[in-house]
Design goal:
Strand content: 5-15%
CATH superfamily of the largest domain: Type I PLP-dependent aspartate aminotransferase-like (Major domain)
Bound molecules: ligand F0G
CATH class of the largest domain: Alpha Beta
Radius of gyration: 22 Å
CATH architecture of the largest domain: 3-Layer(aba) Sandwich
Number of domains: 2
Length: 474
């Protein structure tokens, strides 16, 4: 049968107008934002690929559910609906709602980590590691080496290296290990999945040593899709069955509902151990809110319950990941260095290769994100040395991966937006040798990437050439 083009399983009912800006306006906005894309005003942005977090377009069913928000302080109907949805999709026994993912990370870290303990994980995530350290723990990276190599095409670059994990257990003993933090579709590695085989083997090894495994289920649905596509023996199983299979192997999860679950805010902690759940609820009431809302409004919980069910519809997840693949393939075909294989929630430019004339302490990824904004108002995010922060001795960490993430919000942009994005990256690529670096002029103590300021090292811009597009009707 002849292969046909596919399109999204939805049509557009409402639009949000975007403002087009001139190069002079963008130069001014970027300088005011200290060359940090987090500090730009969104109205100065044309295509916003900063993050897929809380940026999804909700469905008409979700918007309708919003109107059925039960804003009672205690025992809201929407809490019970969301608890049921979590149980249907993820299958854990105990459900603790939080305002977003990091609220759940705070609870888990505070309850499970004793000062001085290690927390092995398949690559760090910024807020996750922050909360582990706040609780007195130390993160240890046990991801496979391929994950640190942008050109490796290994299909499961999120996998845990069992040797590294065994080595940590042998060296430190199980008492010194709080738990294993297992992220699905590893964000900082480029949206790379773990295989079911590896998840099984990792959980088996941990459980043999009485080490609990907590999942970061933030993009578990996307991971399940990759298992279905890439791992032998899983193609006949539905995405939701695979999500359940993953969760069944673990002891609980933290979750940012702002990603897979298609909502603008919300999250949760879910565990199987009733005693741990009880302690989490006790802590929850001090920091987030009562245990039947945990920082969310009733309407937020209502929208999330619907979004959670929509997230596991196969047509949805096919088109969501398919759009990311479309952009990634366009860039790869043009010879742009990107992390391979193409990830689930975004395309990651290898900034160290893209701007290979810049030394690492001139922050090539931060610089590239700034240059991309200047071209046509495309907003992206640095995921390199600025995000990695400093080590215990106060030295800058220079991770192997120096990346710029083009993160695709769910159900928001069209194929034409993806084409314009690819053209913008290509325009900067063509003038890459003219790009000059940045230095940091203000550095916040915690999670510095969010609010740091930079200034150009040469002249007053990082991209001296005006690459502004001349827009033509096709
Ligand atoms: N875990 C992962 C893997 C994440 O990607 C995020 C957020 C969190 C936890 C924290 O969740 O934002 O709801 O508190 N990632 C966003 C991003 C910020 O842009 O990648 P949160």
């Amino acid at each position: 049968m002849k292969k046909r083009s596919w399109a999204e399983p939805w049509k557009i009912k409402m639009v949000e107008p975007l403002r087009m800006t001139s190069r002079a306006e963008r130069e001014r906005a970027l300088a005011e934002a200290g060359y940090n894309t987090f500090l730009l005003r969104s109205e100065d942005v044309y295509i916003d690929l900063l993050t897929d977090s809380g940026t999804s377009a909700m469905s008409d069913r979700q918007w309708s559910a919003l109107m059925l928000g039960d804003e009672s302080y205690a025992g809201s109907r929407n809490y019970y609906d969301l608890e049921q949805a979590m149980s249907d999709v993820y299958g854990f026994a105990e459900f603790i709602p939080t305002h977003q993912g990091r609220g759940a990370e705070f609870l888990l870290s505070q309850l499970m980590i004793k000062p001085g303990q290690f927390v092995p994980g398949n690559m760090y995530f910024t807020t996750t590691r922050y909360h582990q350290e706040l609780a007195g723990g130390q993160f240890v990276d046990v991801i496979i080496d391929e994950a640190h190599n942008p050109t490796s095409t290994f299909p499961f670059k999120g996998n845990v290296c069992l040797k590294k994990l065994q080595h940590l257990i042998d060296e430190q003993g199980t008492d010194k290990i709080a738990y294993l933090s297992l992220e699905t579709n590893v964000n900082m590695a480029g949206g790379q999945p773990c295989s079911m085989e590896n998840i099984k083997a990792t959980c088996e090894l941990c459980h043999q040593h009485d080490i609990p495994v907590f999942l970061d289920a933030t993009r578990c649905v996307e991971n399940a899709w990759f298992i279905k596509q890439r791992e032998a023996g899983w193609n006949d199983r539905s995405v939701v069955e695979i999500v359940r299979d993953i969760c069944n192997l673990t002891d609980g999860c933290t979750m940012s509902g702002k990603k897979d679950s298609l909502v603008n805010t919300g999250g949760f902690l879910a565990v199987n151990d009733i005693k741990l759940a009880e302690e989490a609820r006790n802590l929850l009431v001090c920091h987030e809110g009562l245990h039947t809302y945990g920082g969310m409004a009733g309407r937020d919980m209502a929208a999330m319950a619907v979004g959670m069910h929509e997230s596991i519809e196969e047509d949805h997840i096919r088109s969501r990941v398919g759009q990311v693949q479309y952009l990634g393939e366009k860039l790869m075909d043009a010879g742009i260095p990107i992390v391979q294989p193409i990830g689930g929630h975004g395309v990651y430019l290898d900034a160290a290769a893209f701007l290979d004339h810049l030394p690492r302490d001139e922050f090539p990824a931060q610089t590239l994100a700034a240059a991309l904004y200047l071209d046509c108002g495309l907003r992206t995010m640095e995921r390199g040395a600025v995000s990695a922060g400093r080590d215990a001795e106060g030295h800058n960490i220079f991770p192997k991966l120096e990346l710029v993430r083009l993160t695709i919000p769910r159900r928001v942009y069209t194929q034409a937006h993806m084409d314009v994005t690819a053209e913008s990256v290509l325009a900067v690529w063509e003038h890459r040798r003219a790009v000059t670096g940045l230095r940091m002029t203000y550095e916040p103590v915690r999670l510095r990437f969010f609010q740091a300021f930079f200034s150009p090292l040469v002249g007053c811009t990082v991209l001296p050439v005006d690459t502004s597009p001349e827009v033509v009707a096709n």
